[in-house]
Amino acid sequence: MAPIIRVEQIADYVGQEVTLRGWVYNRTHKGKLVFLLIRDGYGFVQCVAFSKDVPAEVFEMAVHIPQESSVLVTGVVRADPRAPGVPGGYEVGITGLETVQAVAEDYPIALKEHGVDFLLDNRHLWIRTQSQWAILRIRATVIRAIRDWLDDHGFTNMDTPILTPAACEGTTTLFGTPYFDEGIAYLAQSGQLYNEANIFAFSRVYCFGPTFRAEKSKTRRHLTEFWMVEPEIAFCDLDELMEIEEQFISYIVQRVLKERGPELRVLGRDTSALERITPPFPRISYDEAAERLAQLAAEAEDPEQKALLAFEWGMDFGSPHETALTQQFDKPVFVYGYPTKVKAFYMEPWPGRPEVCKSVDLLAPEGYGEIIGGSERISSPEVLLEHIHRDKLPEEAFQWYIELRKFGSVPHSGFGLGLERTVTWICGIEHIREAIAFPRTIKRIYP
Ligand code: 4AD
Ligand code: MG
Questions:
Q1: What per-residue confidence (pLDDT) applies to 110?
Q2: Which of 164, 221, 228 to mutate to test the pocket of ligand 1 (most atoms within 8 A of CB)?
Q3: pLDDT tens across 29-84, in order?
Q4: CB-based contacts of 444: which residues, under 8 Å, 6+ apart?
Q5: Could you give the CA distance from residue 435 to residue 139 in angstroms, rounded to a whole number?
Q6: Helices (H), 166-285
Q7: Which CATH number fits the domain 7-101, given the four candidates 2.40.50.140, 2.40.50.1070, 3.40.1400.10, 2.10.260.10?
Q8: How far apart are CA 171 and CA 173, in angstroms?
Q9: Ligand 1: which of 196, 233, 421 to mutate, most ligand atoms within 8 Å of CB?
């Protein structure tokens, strides 16, 4: 009996007979040869049936087996640099073929170009396609890297609630749901406020889970359900926060380069752009970013581009601004010190400049834009209460949060990294909806 192996292990089995369990991704028939591209969840490998080497019924089966049929393929592994596949470079000379299920109808996603709406309606099948498989494998590695780095740097993983009584990032983007006799509960936009309680027990913590934003934004960067990792750190100011972020991001990118080379090749990703992602990252103030944008707008020859880049101090960045800024750097860039009025209530005011807060966003290069939002948090109970009143937030709901500042308050900081935005950038893809298996957007909740 040949051992059952995974395609990703194939290099260890050259010259041996093995069995693969998988699905027929593609089939080509050339006279006495049939090529089956088999995928098994771990990779794609070319399997060849030569009419002289296999029983006639096996050859016939190979000639006719429909796309996506499930199969057991047995054969001898050969190294062949020309063989297509992921990782590629290996071929299996078929000695036996067994069908688990022969597909009886046409597979909806034949291997040709389809419109994106059609693909999204068929997302349950689309994820089998090589590029989608590669993106979701990279996503899983990004998740591993996130957890490994944090677990190895003194962070305790805390799970914060999904059903919450109050808003963290602004009340306009909440999903509400009836909650027994307690009124409306809201799906969490962020676990941050709870993590600020957690640091006083564990010093460094992170939560990592789904977050929800009822954002009306229909852009390439927005989902209504996305995953966010949120580290929170006691005894940490804005500068230390940026140091942690650049170490963290660099580790994630380097780990993907190390472990997901074949998947990045499937996507045609320019890996030299990722190899550059090492600390330190450039840091510019919001003031400087505003000046750079004014200059870019002044220099722009195309009137449409000029209008898109138009910017005044006090505005939040839109996508065109972020894109233009990141194109000036070949690494992620920190923009710190945003105007207080475009950021959340909990951010520490800039000393001597109350119109500015100790916030920092990290913008990914190549036009990708914001992947992290973070800040130093207000550590004084009085200042916090002032901001809660300023933003007309319900004081009672924030009693516990204010209380944290009364029992051993310390300077503390934290950030939220959007998983899908990070995966979109690392994969070099156009749209965030491909960075999650079953995307949720304003227009889509199926499948
Ligand atoms: O900048 P945001 O809103 O920050 C917070 O939620 C803070 N409470 C985080 C913290 O300090 N603990 O969101 C953080 C990140 C963004 O930079 C972005 O990467 C991602 O979450 N994000 C989204 N990703 C996809 N779709 C959306 N609608 C997103 N909104 C935010
Ligand atoms: Mg943000």
A1: 80
A2: 228
A3: 999 999 999 999 999 999 999 999 999 999 999 999 999 999 999 999 999 999 99
A4: 120, 433
A5: 7
A6: 192-202, 238-259, 261-266, 271-275
A7: 2.40.50.140
A8: 6
A9: 421
